[in-house]
Specification:
The chain has ten helices and 19 strands. The protein has about 400 residues and is of the alpha/beta class. The protein folds into two domains: about 90 residues, Urease, subunit C, domain 1 (Roll), CATH 2.30.40.10; about 280 residues, Metal-dependent hydrolases (TIM Barrel). Strands 1, 2, 3, 4, 5, 16, 17, 18 and 19 form a nine-stranded mixed β-sheet that branches. Strands 6-7-8-9-10-11 form a six-stranded parallel β-sheet. Strands 12-13 form a two-stranded parallel sheet. The structure holds zinc ion (ZN). Zinc ion (ZN) binds next to loops. The site of zinc ion has 5 residues, from loops.
């Protein structure tokens, strides 16, 4: 199917102004001020007036298989469904395992990623879980990266956390080194996604790698940086002094943040104001992991499931409420993760890029249409394509 979107304000994520966009064969074919309608080609014309066109969001940390389990087996969260992802404008996810690397396995994670890809979006995975030594599929981090197409790195490796395997700094450096070489040999990112707990060491392990090896900062992405003000401050220092990259988690309920927790949209503003280069900040949802749910009076109700749709909410809040602006807010969920993950066809609106697109109201940013690889999955804010087992 060919689509022509007329008169739409493009954020690529840079502001390109109002243009026409031609889409076909799963990619963006042409962007120009005016493109002709050619009905003979069976072209569908969409009116973009009053709307913005953004790249499909990239969520680089999703427990697609489910996560949790920290309150016993009954607290293991269920698998994600396609529309849990697409209704939030997300068209690319990187799946990962978390605390539980025993009942959640790499073969199962790969199968789930493959299933979501068959249902219409783009998926990758990290090899491993919190655990060190890393439990891989083939027996080695490097072999997983080289031989398994969907493996773009290792993670989420837990440090500074009571649930971590408490690796030494040398062990941690070895994981990053093997992941990097696996990435080099397979032409992929070789990124280590690092779960940051609330331990006092904070980013010391990552500093150790940058100060004692030749590994560049682009191979490490520490996440949950906004879990506390102090970790946020260390993250800002790490990004400014060592050129590091930091990832803020979006899935916490904004009405029930931990006392010291920083809302992701606010964290982006703080980091930018502190002088962190905008290319060095990303958001991910931690979606489908377990999340405490509270009654309105603040008492614990039970466990819920983190939402991938929180990624879009925090991007929108950064753009509209925090005054960061749409272009800079979008970078944290499109161009920046695409660059770190070395996904050259993703995260931007350009001729030749994959047609992963979100169309939204220019004022409210309410999502109207979501397209992945040139196919419409969400229209009028409703899912028109559902996962295999969705009602
Ligand atoms: Zn985590």
């Amino acid at each position: 199917m060919l689509y022509l979107i007329k008169n739409i304000h493009i954020y690529a994520p840079e502001d390109l102004g109002i243009k026409d966009v031609l889409i076909g064969g799963g990619e963006i074919l042409r962007i120009a001020d005016q493109l002709p309608e050619t009905p003979d080609y069976g072209m569908e014309v969409l009116d973009g007036s009053g709307k913005v066109l953004m790249p499909g969001l990239i969520d680089a940390h999703v427990h697609i298989l489910g996560g949790g389990g920290e309150g016993g087996a009954k607290s293991r969260t269920p698998e994600i469904m396609l529309t849990d992802i697409t209704l939030g404008g997300v068209t690319t996810v990187v799946g990962c395992l978390g605390t539980d690397g025993c009942t959640r396995t790499m073969s199962n994670l790969l199968a789930k990623a493959k299933g979501l890809e068959e249902e219409g979006i783009t998926t990758y995975v990290y090899t491993g879980s919190y655990q060190v030594p890393v439990r891989t599929l083939t027996g080695s981090i490097m072999d997983d990266g080289i031989l398994l197409e969907k493996v773009v790195g290792t993670g989420e490796i837990a440090i500074s956390d009571h649930r971590s395997s408490q690796p030494t700094k040398e062990e941690f450096a070895r994981i990053v080194a093997d992941t990097r070489v696996g990435g080099i040999l397979s032409g992929k990112a070789g990124l280590v996604n690092i779960h940051m707990g609330d331990g006092e060491e904070k980013l010391a392990y990552l500093r150790y790698v940058l100060e004692n090896t030749q590994i560049p900062p682009t191979n490490m992405l520490p996440t949950h940086i906004n879990r506390s003000r102090t970790l946020m401050e260390d993250g800002i220092d790490y990004a400014k002094k060592l050129g590091g990259y930091i990832d803020l988690t979006t899935s916490s309920d904004p009405d029930f943040l931990e006392p010291d927790e920083v809302k992701a949209s606010t964290g982006l503003k703080l980091a930018l104001e502190a002088g962190v280069p905008e290319e060095h900040i990303t958001f991910s949802s931690d979606g489908q992991g377990s999340l405490p749910v509270f009654y309105p009076d603040g008492t614990l109700k039970g466990l819920g499931v983190g939402k991938v749709t929180s990624l879009y909410r925090e991007m929108r809040d950064a753009a509209l409420t925090e005054g960061v602006g749409l272009s800079r807010a979008l970078k944290a969920v499109t161009a920046n993760p695409a660059a770190l993950l070395k996904l050259s066809r993703k995260g931007r609106i350009a001729e030749g890029a994959d047609a992963d697109l979100v169309m939204a109201d220019e004022k409210s940013l309410a999502i109207d249409l979501v397209m992945a690889k040139g196919a419409v999955l969400v229209l009028g804010g409703q899912a028109v394509v559902k996962g295999t087992f969705e009602e």
